[in-house]
Amino acid sequence: MPFFFSCGFIFVSILIGPLKVIPYIFCSFQIPTNAAGLIEYRAHPFWVQKYCPFHEHDGTPRCCSCERMEPRETRFVNLDDGRKLCLECLDSAIMDTNQCQPLYLDIQEFYEGLNMKVEQQVPLLLVERQALNEAMDGERSGHHHMPETRGLCLSEEQTVSTILKRPRIGAGNRVMNMITEPYKLIRRCDVTAILILYGLPRLLTGSILAHEMMHAWLRLQGYRTLSQDVEEGICQVLAHLWLQSQIMSISGSNIASTSSSAPVARSSKQGTSSPFERKLGDFFKHQIESDTSPVYGNGFRAGNHAVLKYGLRRTLDHIRLTGNFPY
Ligand SMILES: [Zn+2]
Ligand SMILES: [Zn+2]
Questions:
Q1: Measured between alpha carbons, how far is residue 322 from residues 56, 267, 306, 319, 326 in Å?
Q2: Does residue 117 belong to any structural domain of this protein?
Q3: What spacing in Å lies between the alpha carbon of 65 and ligand 2's midpoint?
Q4: CA 205 to ligand 1 centroid distance, Å
């Protein structure tokens, strides 16, 4: 089932008097006053990046991962499928199927730690946007179609174009020389593959993967067809739990670096995390929590409430018996 983050934010519009100085404004030129003689600007609720309202309609690119707008002085990377990525998100971006395997192992360990080992070897493939959409069309069962799908858990035999070799960033910050290869999926069990969109930061890729792994787990455990909000909701709960574990291990490794007796945090095998990556983790968590969609947002909130109250195991048992979250 497709997974996406809906943009649940309300971009705040703020009016101030024309003579006031706006601190940290994103636009480097003078902001015009509106008909009432006031300066109007918008701000992203998480990053608090301020900009003039007309940038929402003048084609100013936003990063497809963190949603921040492209500042005038830096160029975002062009992912060739209409998506743009800011340079800070590019820093930890996962660009091909091979590069994603350590992260896949990490998520498998995370599921094992929850006593939810996925026994079958499900292939994980990184794909371009078009390949993801084609695979979605190739699935027989009616999926929940969303405007921006970033991951899929497949159950049909089909051939998927997977990214074999990471692209280079060429002139004009465009990705170039991407090598793809057709990959034939064989049906050995109810799940044939998990597909994830390439080019997203490690923490976002991982949270999408944790979500899709939960679809796979439910299917392989023989759960009946659940209502969309229960299924997507519990998958979002797992994505959120994984993000939380990552944020904790990033904080843990920062403490570990100043104290010799502290144990080595799990994230250390993924390389050092920057303060921005930690902030990104908070942002992706916040995105899940504040999602306004009835399926993903309300589903997550109901599922998270149940897990906090009864624990994950009892919540899953209740879903298996009744098809619903316990109240
Ligand atoms: Zn899903
Ligand atoms: Zn970004």
A1: 45, 37, 14, 5, 9
A2: yes
A3: 5
A4: 14
Tell me the per-residue pLDDT of 161-171, one tens digit each, with 9 for 90 and over.
988 888 888 88
Residue 5: pLDDT band with limits 50, 70, 90? very low
Asked if pLDDT for residue 224 goes beyond 80, the answer is yes
Phi, psi of 80 (to 5 degrees): 70, -5
How confident is the model over 35-57, as pLDDT tens digits? 777 777 777 888 877 777 777 77
Could you tell me the pLDDT band of residue 299, with boundaries at 50, 70 and 90? very high
Ligand 1 center from residue 235 Cα (angstroms): 6
CB burial string 201-210: b at 16+ within 10 A, e below = bbbbbbbbbb
Least confident of 16-20, 31-35, 85-89, 301-305: 16-20
Query: Domain total for the chain?
Result: 1
Residue 314 domain boundaries? 94-252+273-322
Scored b (16 or more CB within 10 A) or e, 105-127 reads ebbbebbeebebebeeebbbbbb
String of DSSP letters for 51-84 = E-GGGGTTT--B-TTT-PBPPTTSPPEE-SSS-E
- Ligand 2 centroid to 89 CA: how many Å? 4
Residue 240 lies in a domain: yes
- DSSP states along 230-287: HHHHHHHHHHHHHHHHHHHHHHHHHHHTT-TTSPPPGGGGG-PPPHHHHHHHHHHHHH
73 in a structural domain? no
pLDDT tens string 237-251: 999 999 999 999 887
Determine contact, residues 185/193, Cβ cutoff 8 Å: yes
What one-letter code names the amino acid at 53?
A: P
- Which ligand approaches the C-alpha of residue 90 most closely? 2
Residue 172's CB is within 10 A of a number of other CB atoms, namely 9
The answer to whether residue 118 sits within a structural domain is: yes
